[in-house]
Amino acid sequence: MQFWVNQSFNGISYAALLFLVGGGLTLIFGVMRVVNIAHGSFYLVGGYLGVVLSARTGNFYVALLGAALVVALGGAALERVFLRAVEGDDLRQMLLTMGIALFFQDLCLLIWGGDPFNLRGPVYFAHSLHLGPFSFPILRLFMIGAAGVLFVILWWFQERTRAGAMVRAAVDNAEMTEALGINVPVLRMGVFGLGALLAGLGGVIGSAFMGIYPGLDFEILPYAFVVVIVGGMGSLGGALAAAVILGLLDNFGKALFPEISYFTLFAPMGIVLALRPSGLFGRA
Amino acid sequence: MESVAGRAPKALLLALGLGIGLLALLPPSLPTYVVIVLTESLIYAIGAASLDLLLGFTGLPSLGHAAFFSVGAYATAVLVTRHQASFGAALAGSVVLAAGVSAAVALLALRATGIYFMMITLSVAMCAWGLAYRWVSLTGGDTGIVGIPRPRVPGVGLASGALAFYYAILALFVVCLTLYLLFIWSPFGKTLVGIRDSESRMRVLGFNVFLHKHLAMTVAGAFAGVAGSLYAYYNGFVGPSTVDLAHSMEFVLMVIVGGPGTLVGPVLGAFAIIFLEKMVSVFTDRWVMVLAAVYVVTALWAPRGILGLLGRAR
To answer: Which has the least CB within 10 A, A33, A154, A211, A212?
Structure first.
């Protein structure tokens, strides 16, 4: 009983992290149709910046917001300068994001070296909440809470605001949206920045949770991609559902079959592709 | 996207003959180090050209080619170090396994097209990386498999010297290249180009598009397995880095830097990237930065590669 409760809780808190990374990617994907290989780099840079900012200011929340904002602005700038130049060509966009990803990978290695860093969050992150025989670490509760709040905000933004309606329109038909007088290029830049923001938040929270080290950018990327593929491209609800499924599978996989644990990613993707190629919540 | 192969087979054959002639005659007078780099380039050229069958000729932008390359490399490593397999047996085993994995992946990946196909192949390759990294009892995990001896080639004896091994690889390269050319000049290859240019037209004409794409992926996977197997012999070591994302993308880069859909282009691209890597590494540790710049420059200014630039200049 204890095993199942603990592993489920761990899986759901991991899912919170996966939602931050995959949710950002699904937004970018839905609006821009870009295979964004640099998405893991946003996570990586966000994590390192979070470590630096939290060491400088001593405040985790300042570091969290500061790092995420820097990453968001950087992402928007990259979209404006580079990606827009090759819009509409999948392969060129993908090569470009690969170049950007390698650049940041080497830059981070140059600045922060090869050693792993751990972000020391507030003191109470180390405590646990005790409920009968079970204990729930505050850090993991915070991750779940942060992802939950962000999901509600994003959902409200997409479904209930005018800007969100524009984004949805651009997802369905960018050309028509543009013809209606909506500035789609600016919208794209904004969405790319928003996706980067989410990945940056994920990076800071992730570095408090499991540390940050070179190579993590490409290690986290397939999780983000599988979240998008399983959930359906462009769907926030799908990303949340997929993140929960993957988080749970990954955790039980690691506990039960450690040797092939990474492969637990493959199983849900294979099943979804076989039965519903557009993803759980995707529109064909 | 007009293929050089389709436009001027005579010029192509002439260029190929000249290139292979140089590759056959020059090495004895070259320093050993250059011969070693040439060997690596030839192996990657086999791999990059096999990806061109998909990316350039069939219009399938597979981002997971390193997975099939690595299936070949790991299969050879396991067969040679644990089962003392001969060169022929290891090569055959690697090819069959790589083709099988490729065929299985194709069943899934081909349910999607375009950008979805790219994401799926990339994710599959990363899952393969995860297996290589974590399935320690089979793959040796992070340490990989070391101590793969050079092959005993019939007629040549033990190809232990750099030059003897080079000629063995060159011979296999010529065999692969001939098979590639026969493949793309065959009616089957022409059908693939037709699918690339207009899938719906080919479907209306009564072609089984899925089957053609599936066979193309299986064949490309088999040849990636050849390259992987040779790489295991060349390197003497196989580890998770052979299957990582950067490695998969490097194959894509080689194809595009050279010129997709030309077969010769990816071969040139493989030589260019490998030689660039070795030269840059002499001067600086920042090879990854240079590689990043190559990606960005290619994406922004040379999407049809070296041959594309040449064609435009003419």
So the answer is: A211
